[in-house]
Specification:
The complex is a heterodimer of chains A (186) and B (73). By secondary structure, chain A is mainly alpha-helical. Chain A has seven helices and no strands. Chain A has two domains: 1-101, RNA polymerase sigma factor, region 2, helix turn helix motif (Rna Polymerase Sigma Factor, Chain: A, Orthogonal Bundle), CATH 1.10.1740; 105-186, Winged helix-like DNA-binding domain superfamily/Winged helix DNA-binding domain (Arc Repressor Mutant, subunit A, Orthogonal Bundle), CATH 1.10.10.10. Mean pLDDT of chain A is 83; it is low at 4-14 and 98-106. Chain B is mainly alpha-helical and 73 residues long. Chain B is built from four helices and no strands. Chain B is elongated, with a radius of gyration of 27 Å. The chains are: A mainly alpha (186), B mainly alpha (73). At the A-B interface, helix 1, helix 2, helix 4, helix 5 and helix 7 of A face helix 1, helix 2 and helix 3 of B.
Chain lengths: 186, 73
């Protein structure tokens, strides 16, 4: 999958100042979605933090290349997916295995959560990560993308470079595999 | 004294019930579960601060010239 390239039309004028509010609002609106994707795809909060930072930095640098043909969310996802896949590829090339026993899987509980609720959310996050880790990269990515209600099947299909029908079929199998494994994590 | 302990017992039940209501035990689908998980994921504030710092030192890219836009290159 290619990263966004220069296109025919510029939908968004790149701000002349990096501290411009356009960047802040872009980050505010999409950072949770991008962080969540990187967190659950990479399975490591520190790596997800770095990846989210790098994705937005890339996006800020290339904002003048945003064509407006896809939504901003889709464009950011494309950068994030490429970034994560490149990271995974380079880890595999270096034969570095993530130590899943030491990885911190949990969803960061909201500051307002009670201790009991925070614990439950953390346990749930661990189970989800364990389940996602058991799936193939393709299934994991599809499940994470479809969980974002802002994305249509067509947009997901474009992001993964497949037809919408193929995505539906694979999602069906991915959901089944997720449910089957998740039950075993109790 | 007994009344007080009953009160605190009630409070505990109430707190437990509220917690159960906040964290659903059953999800209709994996999509719903992942949406719940995403909604409860907080973005570390360090990312925003770091981004501000790193992007501050970078020059803004010049706008693409009109002829590049026109010929799509």
């Amino acid at each position: 999958m290619n990263e966004p390239v220069a296109g025919e039309e510029i939908a968004i004028e790149a701000p002349t100042d990096w501290s411009a509010p356009e960047y802040a609002s872009l980050y505010d609106e999409h950072s949770r979605a991008i962080f969540y994707l990187t967190l659950r795809f990479l399975g490591d909060p520190q790596k997800a933090e770095d990846a989210t930072h790098d994705v937005f930095l890339k996006a800020f640098r290339r904002l003048d290349q945003f064509r407006g043909e896809a939504s901003m969310r889709t464009w950011l996802y494309r950068i994030a997916i490429n970034h994560c896949q490149n990271l995974c590829q380079s880890w595999q090339n270096r034969n570095i295995q993530a130590n899943s026993d030491n990885a911190i899987w949990e969803t960061s509980p909201a500051k307002t959560d009670s201790p009991l609720r925070a614990l439950e959310t953390k346990e749930l996050g661990q189970r989800i990560q364990k389940t996602l880790d058991s799936l193939s990269d393709e299934y994991r990515l599809l499940l994470l993308l479809v969980a974002d209600e802002e994305l249509s099947y067509d947009e997901i299909a474009a992001l993964v470079g497949q037809s919408a029908d193929a995505v539906r079929g694979k999602l069906h199998r991915a959901r089944k595999a997720f449910a089957a494994y998740f039950e075993t994590t109790v | 004294m007994k009344q007080q302990s009953k009160f605190s017992e009630n409070q505990e039940h109430l707190a437990a019930a509220q917690t159960q209501a906040q964290v659903p035990k059953e999800f209709a689908s994996s999509d719903e579960l992942l949406r719940f998980d995403a909604a409860h994921t907080t973005v570390p504030p360090e990312i925003g601060a770091r981004l501000k710092k790193t992007s501050a030192g970078i020059a803004t890219p010049p706008p693409r010239p009109w002829w590049r836009r026109m010929f799509n290159c």
